[in-house]
Structure formats: structure tokens, C-alpha cells
């Protein structure tokens, strides 16, 4: 009798473990000069000192970093933000966002010759930033054309 009870308990435990919902990280998708990239190796950092800086960052050789400095403790989930290079100065109504793309071992920032915007929205309970085709440049006067959908993990 004890064997059957123990066996039933083990079967129920195995079913529970097998059915446990695993957290799946959303992928971010972007194009650089027409070549597609994707990653779910994305995380949120910043705000540890209460300074209102929050970053959405991806890892790898082809990666991105999106930096907000709005003074709030979470990523903004609505509105449009002017793309700029570097970290914007803090302002609660700041509608600018710093953006860096790493490509082929180099860092690229949005070109100062364009006014392009990042659109924020909430999809399936997570933040998504959508960027139209935008020229990015580096210090060597090299340029790349970037677009994409960048998702909170």
C-alpha cells in the first residue's frame, strides 16, 4: 500500500514538474544594411542608484544598447523618443533616447543629420521599441542602415 501511495506521489510530482510553465524570453529582431539579426540574450539594467537611468541591452558581437534617462524606475512603455547618441540628460519629460549598435567590432550611433524616433508600446505585457530605417554612424565616418523591433526580455 505504501508503495502505491509513494508511486502515485512520484507520478503527480513528475507531471507537475513537466507542466511547470517556463519563462520564455522574447526575441529582438533588427536589420543592419539588409542583413537580419535576432537575439533573446537581452536584459534590462540601470536604476540601481535611483538615478532614473534604464537600459535595454543585448549581448554578442552584433548587439544594441538603448538608454533612457527619464527619472522613473522602469522602462517607458508608451510614446515616441527622438534617437540620439550617448546618454540623454535627465528630465522626466525627456523624449529622447540614447542608442548604440555594435556591428563588426565597431560602435555606431544615430546620425545627427536625421530626426528619427523610437516608438514604445506594450505587447503581451512586455515593452517593445520599434525603430524605422535609420542611419547610424561611427567616428570613422562609416555608416550603416538599421531598423528593428527591440523587446524587453
What does this protein structure show overall?
- The chain has 153 residues and is mainly β.
- It has one domain.
- The chain is built from one helix and eleven strands, in the order H-E-E-E-E-E-E-E-E-E-E-E.
- Strands 6-7-8-10-9 form a five-stranded mixed beta barrel.
- The longest helix is centred in the first third of the chain and has 18 residues, at 2-19.
- The radius of gyration is 21 Å and the shape is globular.
- It starts with a helix and ends with a strand.
- The model has no long low-confidence stretch (mean pLDDT 82).
Give the SSE string.
Answer: HEEEEEEEEEEE
Q: In percent, how much strand structure appears in the residues?
A: over 45%
Strand order of the biggest β-sheet? 6-7-8-10-9
Using only CA atoms, what is the Rg?
21 Å
* Shape assignment: globular
Low-confidence runs: none
Give the tally of structural domains.
1
Strand-helix topology:
Elements: H1 2-19, E1 28-32, E2 35-39, E3 42-45, E4 53-58, E5 63-69, E6 79-84, E7 96-103, E8 106-110, E9 117-123, E10 126-137, E11 143-151
Parallel strand pairs: 6-7
Antiparallel strand pairs: 1-2, 1-11, 3-4, 4-5, 5-7, 6-9, 7-8, 8-10, 9-10, 10-11
Index terms:
153 residues, mainly beta, 12% helix
Describe, in short, the structure shown.
With 153 residues, the chain is mainly beta. It has one domain (23-151).
